[in-house]
Design brief:
The protein has one domain. Helices cover 30% and strands 36% of the residues. The chain has 2 helices and 5 strands; from the N terminus they run H-E-E-E-H-E-E. A hairpin with a 2-residue loop joins strand 1 and strand 2. The model has no long low-confidence stretch (mean pLDDT 92).
Length: 77
């Protein structure tokens, strides 16, 4: 998959889980960093998130564990 396809897939899944996946204003070694926000409240959940880490979290189900009511990922407080 290309980075564009990965970003599209993560954004689609994030929207389904009540999250927003967007590009941050920072870079690391020339690569853009990413953010994960709560879609409803706008709270920043993850910052300076690498695309590879975001893809891994999406694929292994971590993003889907987000609880919209509590504003936390399951098992994390």
């Amino acid at each position: 998959m290309t980075n564009k396809q990965i970003i599209s897939e993560i954004r689609k899944g994030a929207k389904e889980y009540g999250l927003v996946f967007k590009q941050a204003d920072t870079t690391l070694n020339g690569s853009y960093m990413w953010q994960l926000k709560d879609r409803k409240t706008g709270d920043l959940l993850m910052d300076n998130y690498r695309l590879t880490s975001a893809w891994s979290d999406y694929c292994n189900g971590y993003m889907s564990s987000y609880n919209k009511q509590t504003g936390y990922f399951e098992g994390v407080r």
